[in-house]
Amino acid sequence: MTYSSQCSRSKSIVRFSNDEEMSTDTGDLNLDNLPTDTLLIIFSFCGPELWPILSQVCHRFYVILGPNSFLWEQISRRLLIVNQTSLVFRSKLYSSLCGREKCRIYKNWRKGACLVKPIATIVEKHILPWLILETDLLWIGAGSHIRAYARAPPATFDSGFNESKRSHGCKPLLNLVSTSGDVRQFVVKDGIVVAGDTVGSLLVWRASSGKLQFKKSKCHSSEISTVGLHKNLIVSGSRDKTVKIWQHSWRDLHIIQEIILEDRVLSLDIDPSGSVLCTGTGGHFNVSPSQLYDLSTGALISPLRKHFREGEGVYDIHFESPNEVLTADFNSALRLWDLRTQTNVSVWEDPHDSAVNCIASDNNVTMLTGTATHGGIRLWDKRQRRCAQLYFVQPDLRSPVYSLDFDSSELFAALDASVVGLDFSAGNDKPSNGLAVFPCN
Fold first, then answer.
1. Does residue 426 carry a pLDDT above 60?
2. I need a labelling partner for 279 at 20 to 30 A (CA). Which of 124, 196, 307, 431 fits?
3. How far is Cα 327 from Cα 308, in angstroms, rounded to an integer?
């Protein structure tokens, strides 16, 4: 039977696999009367570029192709950066995004189309800045200060933004000061800020007010390079080759475990369940650069890396889950470890052989690493072995990236003289002057 003879029938019934029936009159066999499954197949051939236009045809098309439709959400779940499937990652989002907006912002990430935000100027010399991103605040540690800056809504940062702000950055809401030495890495969690300084002191502030709760001097004989926090336990790692586990209250803390590593401690992290501690050292004196310890007893569980060259230290550690941990190596490698088998399951080599200083992750498939040269940031996909994208933040300055963090719309990077924010929700389809982008695939 031909198509014309089918249409000549006064009424036709079409049955589909989902038992949905469509009844049409002779003169009303329109596209918008087709079953949803059939329309989805047709729209898939049109491509996402045409979906916003098609969604304006009629109400039914808008339901299928509108900003919060199933099609957009289905595509965004497979994308880097904007998938927002992890609860941990969603806790950093300034605002939730619809499916269509996720795809638009991801396109800006790939093209480097963004608004450059100068957040803070670092006047201190020879320091290692550190930053932590929260839903409403950006914490920046530089020199003897930890400052909290209010996050502006994405794509509205330039509202009333004059040239003086453009050169000097924003005004902090809180200013936490260490009177004894410079602050290294710090942690913000459970309503408190914990940091160690260059003279071996531990400091604890209230995150809401910036009030110093207490300071304990001489916790270590050398500078404290890294700290961790889980409930009422504080873990500090120092260049004096020790890791100490402290129990804290609102007024004081006392030591419960001391671990001697025989190599300077550069980084550490505690798994989300609070049972395992992973440490990163300098890779000297035949000491494994990454080791696992029982947090409750301080006993060594296992060295993760058994074969390494002298000086292949671990600069940063990030737990993806209680069973997975990422380590950033001086030898230009990002490694994923499975703690159930205590094996290295994946290795991503930096394409320019640059040392990896820091890690940020969406706890799903997206990883960003900050490198030691030319403001280099690498975008990685766990599902691939090659780097997905190369970013160079203010490449003319040739600064290392000491710390970075991101959500679906924004990326923040700490350089040696400034902290810069990149807002990809405000992109105008053209690469920004302060950012150079190169695809790897």
1. yes
2. 124
3. 14
- What average pLDDT does the chain have? 88
Q: Where are the beta strands (DSSP E) in 143-272?
A: 145-150, 174-177, 183-189, 192-197, 202-206, 212-216, 224-230, 233-238, 242-248, 253-260, 265-270
Burial class of residue 167 in the structure, from the number of CB atoms within 10 Å of its CB (0-12 exposed, 13-18 middle, 19+ buried): exposed
333: closest CA among 319, 346, 321, 320?
346
Distance from C-alpha of 205 to C-alpha of 176, rounded to nearest angstrom? 8
- Classified as helix, coil or strand, 343 is strand
Q: With H, G, I as helix, E, B as strand and everything else as coil, classify residue 106.
A: helix
321 within 8 A of 272, measured Cβ to Cβ: yes
pTM: 0.87
Q: What are phi and psi of 38, to 5 degrees?
A: -70, -40
CA angle 123, 195, 246 (to 5 degrees): 165
Per DSSP, the residues of 2-52 read: -HHHHHTSSEEEEE-TT--EEEEETT---GGGS-HHHHHHHHHHH-TTTHH
Question: With contact defined as beta carbons under 8 Å apart, do 223 and 195 qualify?
Answer: no
Domains, the chain? 26-66 (no CATH), 105-439 (2.130.10.10)
Q: What are the angstrom distances between the C-alpha of 343 and each of 298, 338, 340?
A: 21, 6, 8
Residue bearing tokens 């990236």: 401
The pLDDT value recorded for residue 328 is 96
Q: Sign of dihedral through CA atoms 56, 59, 62, 64?
A: negative
Residues 131, 137, 143: CA angle, nearest 5 degrees: 35
Q: What angle do CA 59, 61, 65 make, to 5 degrees?
A: 120
357 token code pair: 């200083």
Closest CA to 243 of 269, 206, 215, 217: 269
Stated as kind and residue range, the H or E segment containing 118 is strand 115-121
Rounded Cα gap, residues 325 and 204, in angstroms: 27
The contacts found for 84-89 with CB under 8 angstroms, 24 or more apart, are: 84/362, 84/408, 85/362, 85/364, 86/362, 86/363, 86/364, 88/272, 88/363, 89/361, 89/362, 89/363, 89/364, 89/407
Q: How many residues does the chain have?
A: 441
Confidence band for 27, pLDDT divided at 50, 70 and 90 = low
Label residue 155 by pLDDT band (50, 70, 90): low
Kindly indicate the confidence band of residue 168, based on its pLDDT and cuts at 50, 70 and 90. very low
Nearest CA to 380 out of 413, 349, 422 is that of: 349
